Amino acid sequence: MKKTLLIILICLSFTCSANTRVVKNTAQPALTNNTLVRKQTDTTKTTLIIEEKAPETILKKAPLQKKEVLEITAPIKRIDTVKSTPKISKEPKKVSKTLLHQPWNALLKKYVSKDGNINYKGFKQDRAFRLYLKTLSTNMPDQNWSKNEKLAYWLNVYNAFTIKLITNNYPLKSIKEIKKPWDLRFFKLGSKWYTLNDVEHRILRKMKDPRIHFGINCASFSCPPLLNKAFTSKNVNSELEKLAISFINDPKRNKITANTIELSKIFLWFAKDFKYNGTLVSFLNKYSKITINPNAQKSYMDYNWNLNE
Questions:
Q1: Buried b / exposed e along 118-143 (16+ C-beta atoms within 10 A)
Q2: What are the residue boundaries of the structural domains of the chain, listed by start?
Q3: pLDDT of residue 94
């Protein structure tokens, strides 16, 4: 019995010693910067749970390589929202015959007086004038155009490019300061280069309408005044009639009585054109306010080549 009691005492002593060691081992350890202490509580006991934090160097993001930085910082293009700006062509396009001479009509009203005096400086500075000249080049008559449409086109061509010739050489006092002005091949229509003589002698005069001489202007005071509106297929006949009446009865350009006529040299230079259907006097009598005798004495006035501005 005594022996059994001794054994029990020894066992109890051993158990107490072990418990003491456990308490010592569960004492709060020394904490470091990398240690996290979390307190956990339940209904029976409180336990300290120690967790290791990752070192700070691990939490830091590794530096990007140079190539990666460039890719990240490059601007991002949104293809779906970026719209390209359409290119605006400066070249004139094909236009209808009814609209072709509208820009020219506006320019004539702007820079030509009712008396036919021309503001060449204004034409020279106006981009619309240069564009109209290009439009003439890309809208030439074809076989489907009527006679009046062709007549209006070539009258406007002659007048517009005469002004262009002056502006190319401006300032000047007379068109005759330009060397052989009517033989200069300085403008292109379609694929062909032209002179003013090409238009007047090889195109307009071949239409056998002597009134064209009152519709074209040679940039001089003695020329028939430049009409301050564009010729069109609808107005070309009526306007040429008005210009013929105005020019023939203008005392600054023709002096007419029943028995003597002092005429513009236009009637001398192009005498053949005014005799298609009779004599020169018979042609003049169609428009003159004074009836001229068939045997009237005729002479020709000096021509004033000063610039009509």
A1: bebeebbebeebeebbebbbebebee
A2: 102-249
A3: 81
